[in-house]
Amino acid sequence: MVNNQQPEIQEHYLDRDCTTLSRHVLQQLQSFSPEAQDLSAIMNRLALAGKLISRRLSRAGLVENALGFTGEVNVQGESVKKMDVFANDVFISVFKQSGLVCRLASEEMEKPYYIPENCPVGRYTLLYDPIDGSSNVDINLNVGSIFSIRQQEGDDTDGEAKDLLQNGHKQIAAGYILYGPTTVLVYSMGHGVHSFILDPSLGEFILAQENIQVPHHGPVYSANEGNYWQWDESIREYIRYMHRHEGYTARYSGALVGDFHRILLQGGVFVYPGTVKKPEGKLRLLYESAPLAFLIEQAGGRASTGTQPILDVVPEELHTRTPLAIGSTEDVQLVESFIADWIRRKTDNEAIAK
Ligand code: AHG
Ligand code: MN
Ligand code: MN
User: Which fold would CATH assign to domain 220-353?
Assistant: First the structure.
C-alpha cells in the first residue's frame, strides 16, 4: 500500500538536501550578478575551509602534529597551538588562485596576508579567527572559526590595509563554523541569520534553520567568573545580581563561538569585560566581536562594549580589543544598565569631592 503523502515528504527532504550553502547565498541576494556569484563562491571556499578543519579536528588525536603548542607566541602575546597554525593556513590555501580575496587578516598574523594574483579582480578582504577557543582543542571540546568579509576600499598601495580600520557596519557578511558533535556553519549577509549542518555523507553544508531570531531574554549568562577580582565594580555588581536572583544559570565553555551559539538559539548573554591585566578585555574587534555583533543584530539581539554598540567601534589597529556584552536585547541592556549606573555614581561622587 503506497502512502499518499510519501512523494510530498520525499520532495520536502530532497528540497532541503539540495539547499546547499552556495545556492542559499544566491537566493539571499536574489541575483546572479557577478557580485552575487563572487559572494557565493567566497562562501563556498569558507565551507571548504570548514570541512578541512573539521576533518583534521575529528582525527586530531590520531595524526602526527595536530595537538599541543608550537612553542611560538603570536602577535596577541598568546601561545600558539598547532591547530591555530593549521587552520590559519587552511584559510589562506582555499583562497589562493581563487580570484576572490585579495587580503586575509587573521588573529594569528601580525599583518594582512596578500594574494597579489587575486588583487586585480578580488576586491574582498577576509578577516578571521581560524580557531576560536583553542584551549579546548587538546581536550576534545568544541571550538570554532569566525569570519567576516569586507569590501576593499581604495588601492591599499602602501600595503597598510588602513581601510580595514572602520566600523563593523562595513561588513558585507559574517559568520562562524562551530566544530561540535556536528559541524555547523552560521552566516548572514545582512538578510537574516541562517544555519547549515555539514552532512558528512554528502560532504555538503545543508540548510538547517533560516532567519534565526534570538529570544528577547534568556536564562544563561556566560562569563569567566575567575576574573571577578580583576573586574570593575560595575561588573561585580552585575554578577552579584545574577547570583541573587532566580531564573539565571551560568554556562561558560572557553570558546566564544560555542557560548555564542547557545545564546543565539536559546537566549541569554555572553560578557567578557575589561580586566586589570587586559583593560580592553580579551576579544578582538575585527575577528571576533564585530562579526558576532553583525550576526546578533541580524537575529534581533544586541552587542555592546557596555557603553557603545560594538558595530560603531572604529579600531585603532588591526588587533584592537574591546569589552563585549552580546546576546538577547534585554540581557545585554541589563549589563549596560549596571555600567551606566556605576559611571553615574562615580561622576556624582567626583562632583561632590570637588
Ligand atoms: P582564541 O582561542 O581565539 O584565543 O579565543 C579564546 C577566547 C574565546 O573563545 C573565549 O571565550 C575566551 O577567549 C576565553 O578566555 P578566558 O580563558 O580568559 O575566559
Ligand atoms: Mn577567538
Ligand atoms: Mn583564535
Answer: D-Maltodextrin-Binding Protein; domain 2 (3.40.190)
Helix (H) or strand (E) holding 32, with range, is: none
The mean pLDDT values, 10 residues at a time, for the chain of 354 residues are 65 77 87 85 96 93 80 84 95 93 95 90 93 94 97 83 94 97 97 96 94 98 98 97 97 98 98 96 98 98 98 97 98 98 90 84
Atom 14 in ligand 1: residue holding the nearest Cα: 254
Output the CA 286–ligand 1 centroid distance in Å: 15
Question: If you measure from the C-alpha of residue 13 to the centroid of ligand 2, how many angstroms do you get, rounded to a whole number?
Answer: 35
Give the CATH fold of the 12-209 domain.
Answer: Fructose-1,6-Bisphosphatase; Chain A, domain 1 (3.30.540)
Torsion sign, CA atoms 61, 62, 65, 66? negative
Query: Could you tell me if 223 and 231 are in contact, meaning their C-beta atoms sit under 8 angstroms apart?
Result: no
Q: Sort 304 into a burial class: Cβ within 10 Å, 0-12 / 13-18 / 19+.
A: buried
Report the pocket of ligand 1 as residue ranges, CB < 6 Å.
78, 107, 129, 132-134, 224, 254-256, 282
Q: 8 Cβ partners below 8 Å, 6+ apart?
A: none
Each domain of the chain, given as residue ranges in start order, spans 12-209, 220-353
Atom of ligand 1 nearest to the CA of 255: 9
Angle 34-58/82-95 helices, nearest 10 degrees?
Answer: 150
Going from the Cα of 130 to the center of ligand 3, the distance in angstroms, rounded, reads 6
- Ligand of minimum distance to the alpha carbon of 282: 1
| Whole-prediction pTM | 0.95
Which of 131, 179, 256, 280 for a ligand 1 pocket mutation test, highest count of atoms within 8 Å of Cβ?
A: 256
Closest ligand 1 atom to Cα of 252: 11
At residue 61, φ and ψ (nearest 5 deg) are -75, -10
Helices 329-353 & 233-244 angle (0-180, nearest 10): 130
What's the gap in Å between 32 CA and the centre of ligand 1? 39
